[in-house]
Input
Amino acid sequence: MKYDVADVKLAPGGKKRILWADNDMPVLAAIRERFARTKPLKGMTISACLHVTAETANLMRTLKAGGANAVLCASNPLSTQDDVAASLTKDFGIPTFAIRGENRATYYKHLNAALDHKPTVTFDDGADLVNELHIKRKKDAGRIVASMEETTTGVIRLRAMAREGKLKFPVIAVNDAKSKHLFDNRYGTGQSTVDGIIRATDYLLAGSNVVVAGYGWCGRGFAMRARGMGAIVIITEVDAIKALEAAMDGFQVMPMAQAAKVGDLFVTLTGNKHVLRPEHFRAMKHRATVANSGHFDVEIDIPGLKKMSKKVNRGVRNHVDEYVIGRSKSIYLLGEGRLINLAAAEGHPACVMDMSFATQALQAEYVLKHAGKLEIAVHAVPLEIEEQVCRLKLRTMSIAVDKLTPEQVEYLASSGEGT
Output
């Protein structure tokens, strides 16, 4: 079995971590038990480019239990848990290509190792596998039945490809499932971003001016958590509707040029490029701290920051680099501008990833059943999958919901009854 991990001897610790996370992923466990009995993914070859974490490991175990021939590579150089990568390879027989801190050349070597597996289905966290198939490995794209995309950033890229007529196979926007973005993005990103920042800096949020760039579901989640810990939260937005919503939710809203002058901590969660730029760095206070919780490391203009700095002090603290501007101003960059919740912490809690990865697993079953029937486009997750995941999750939480009476069903389906 081919694989590339930091040290396979780390496997015992990784297995403990995987099984600990599994305790808090009952929905995925129930699906894995059914998959093991019915083998609905038999004959499917999967290449997954995802964050190599304990939660992801349990998704990969589920796919394998369903009969899939699956491999995994990292979707971000700083999100890999090396002990998990080792355990997936050694204990669970799933070839893994991921090393924490890998450079760009190794990252793309691992992407191509996953594609050498000759997948019929791909799982992506940022659309890098899909991008590689469309640019450098076009011949392999014809084999793909469908791809699943788990991030806002990836869905943006894929919808652009679809609009331009460049998309070569169907893609399921798993990210846009309500059971994913309402929970994973809001509660998962919200909590894990706070976790990463505090682990990296030992920062006290209470009383601090925290600037949140973007009020999508990830931005909402982080803003809620920061306010809950006593921060004075400022939102920056380009979308008028989201900006108005943020204001109605009780947050200050202003342009980044204005926020840059008052912020103590800046966090980008937009999926866009160069949200924080040199003109913002110039306006920031001494010892302002900047972090990113969007998928790619382009939200902060790091080359621009480096160019305007007279000195860069690497590793002044774990996951903290100091950029010295002029005579006396320091800007602290966290996690090299990569996903701070994974660069400095462990990513989303397992219980929220339980829903996202349950959706992924059921979606794999769906695309195999509908192989050859899906239009080449970016598709939504079917409502029945969403409902199944939420029903299972409620059951594991011992929560029951009401059912419509026959009279209520008839009333909702009719138009004749008025005031």
Remarks:
- The domain at 4-180+348-396 is CATH 3.40.50.1480 (Rossmann fold).
- The chain has two domains: 4-180+348-396, 187-343.
